[in-house]
Structures are given as C-alpha cells and as structure tokens.
Amino acid sequence: MFSFFKKQEKQPDPAAEAAVQEKAARPSWTERLKQGLSRTRERLGTPIGDLFRRGKIDDELLEDLEATLLMADCGVEATQHLLAELKNRVKRDKLETADQLREALSDVLTQLLSVLEKPLDVHGHKPFIIMLAGVNGAGKTTSIGKLAKHFQAQGKSVLLAAGDTFRAAAREQLMTWGERNDVTVIAQESGDPAAVIFDAIHAARARGIDVVLADTAGRLPTQLHLMEEIAKVKRVIQKAEPSGPHEVLLVLDANIGQNAVTQVKSFHAALGVTGLVVTKLDGTAKGGVIAAIARTQPIPLRFIGVGEGIDDLQPFSAREFVDALFAPLPQRA
Question: Please, is 6 exposed, middle or buried when counting C-beta atoms within 10 Å of its C-beta (0-12, 13-18, 19+)?
Fold first, then answer.
C-alpha cells in the first residue's frame, strides 16, 4: 500500500520579495555612476559642451577649455598634458569640428586615467591582508564594510580588524558592518591598534580566512607622531606575516580636490601606498582630481564610491568614468 503526500507549498516571504523588488528597481552601476558624477559633470561636462557648440576650434576655445579643466580640479600638470595631447591630435588628425574635438578629449582623458585602472587581485596569499589608511572623515570604516561585501560576492571569506582604537564610534560602526555582512570583527575597547591587527591576522590564519581588512585611525599627514604610529602598525603586520600587508589602501575624500594629491604623497612616503579608494564622488564637483592623481601620483585607483549603498563602491574603470563624466545631463523641469 502506498501513501501519497502533497508537498507543502513554501509560503512567500514578504521581506525577501520586497528586497528582490528593491534590487531590481535600483539603477545599474552605470546609471548610478552617471548620477554620482552629476556635480562634476555640471562643472566640467556642461561648460565643455557649451564650448564645443561654437563649432570652431581656435585658440580662444582651447583657452576656455583650459580654464574649465582647472575649475574641475584636474590640476595644472594634468590640464597642460590634456591640452598638449589635444593640440597634437587637432594637428595630426586635422580635426575641424567641435564634435571631433569632444571625442578626442574623451579619448585623451581616458588614456590619461587608464594608468590608474588596475583591479585589486587578492589571490596569492591567504590571508590576503589589506591595511587601510586616511585622514579623519575620508570614509575608511564605511569603505571597509563595502569592501567586505565586494569580496564576499567573489566567494571570499573576510575578517575585519578594528584597528581604530581611538574613536569608539569607529569600532561600533565596524561591528555593525560585520553584523550586516555576517563577518567576524576582531576588536578591543582600548589599547594598541597594532596589537589588535596582529591578533586579527593570527585569528584569520587559524580560521582559514581569505581576506583581512584592517582599519586604522584617521590622521593628518602633518601629524608626524601619528604618521610614525601608522608606520609602526605596518611593521607589526610584517611581524605577524612577513609578506604583508599585501595591499595598503589610502582612502581619499573627493571633496578635498587638489589636497588629495598632497595626501597621496605624504601617506605614500610613510607607508608605501599600493592602491587608492576615492569616496564621495557623488557629493562634489571636484571629480577631476582623479586626473591630477593620474598625472602626478599614478598609484592604482582600486575603487571609487558614488553613494551610501553597500554596492556603491566599485572597481575603477577609466572608460566607464569618462563616459559617465561626459554623459548628457538630465533635462531640468
């Protein structure tokens, strides 16, 4: 005798369905990047569009273009480089129309920024130790939470080290990110930040963790004793793992414009920075500073951030960035 049982139908989960619908309705990264660069585009793209509508390439247009690039915080060296390349193309390719010049500028800018386009590869070491540094308020702790999600999406296990032992809110913020991502956080209420990170590396090795993200306290490059302290943190990491840290990420707030170049130089001198993260591009008209970095301090730009969402920090693509920069602005009502 056989008995037949009707399989119980799984009841829908309203919260899960809402999350799926919200994700589906969310704009793509390309669209979010365009939206995030809208202020820089207003500063750079709109004036350039107005210049190119003149329909004539002459010295006056090029002078106005120079002023526009400087206003967008591209910096003197990058601006001079872009204009020189542009003039060469005008002469070499016999460019005559504004549309041709606009396309040439897009190509030249992409070429300049392409030196920064080197995605971070966390293979080769286990655990792969990433140390993050930067000034207060640059967005280090938030970036760590977003990076944890990024590496988890790649199938990597992650452990967070709360090395900012001076600011209690930083530790709590990191613990919150750990809970959101279901990631272990090694933290102490007080004490030596180097010791916290040292313990985190040993814990990661014991647990077979793929990636360690080590937070550090914010500091200004002019605070020499604090710069020496963060150099000590790096030395302690090397004691725990002689091959580490495998990446030293400097987090930069895009709002500071040309000061970002100074920060790169100072932190690189103290730590040997291997990669950059530029945050808050959605809140500034100074996105052109990336061109300044490419020309004067071409350290790989690993990630850029254009929002508060957990997936609003993405690997940098030069062509994607320039296309978003010169995309038409939405018509105002």
Answer: exposed
- φ/ψ region of 113 (left if φ > 0, alpha if ψ in -120 to 50, else beta) reads alpha
The C-alpha torsion from 317 through 33 and 131 to 191, rounded to 10°, is 180
> In sequence order, which residues have a C-beta less than 8 Å from that of residue 231 and are 6 or more positions away?
270, 271
The β-bridge relationship of strands 301-305 and 313-315 is: antiparallel
Closest CA to 173 of 164, 292, 323: 164
User: Structure pTM?
Assistant: 0.87
Cα–Cα distance measured from residue 3 to residue 297, given in angstroms and rounded to the nearest whole number: 74
Give whole-number Cα distances, 330 to 24, 30, 134, 327, in Å. Answer: 22, 15, 34, 9
Contacts of 175 (CB under 8 A, 6+ apart): 162, 185, 187
- Residues 90-148 have pLDDT tens digits of 889 988 877 788 889 999 999 999 999 999 999 999 999 999 999 988 999 899 999 99
The label of the residue with tokens 């020309």 reads 295
- Give CA–CA dist 183/209, Å, rounded: 10
What burial class does residue 293 get, using C-beta atoms within 10 Å of its C-beta: 0-12 exposed, 13-18 middle, 19+ buried? buried
Task: Transcribe 55-71 into DSSP letters.
Answer: ----HHHHHHHHHHHHH
pLDDT tens-digit series, residues 211-252: 999 999 888 888 888 888 899 999 999 999 999 999 999 999
Which residues are within 8 A (CB) of 190 and not within 5 positions of it... i.e. 6 or more apart?
165
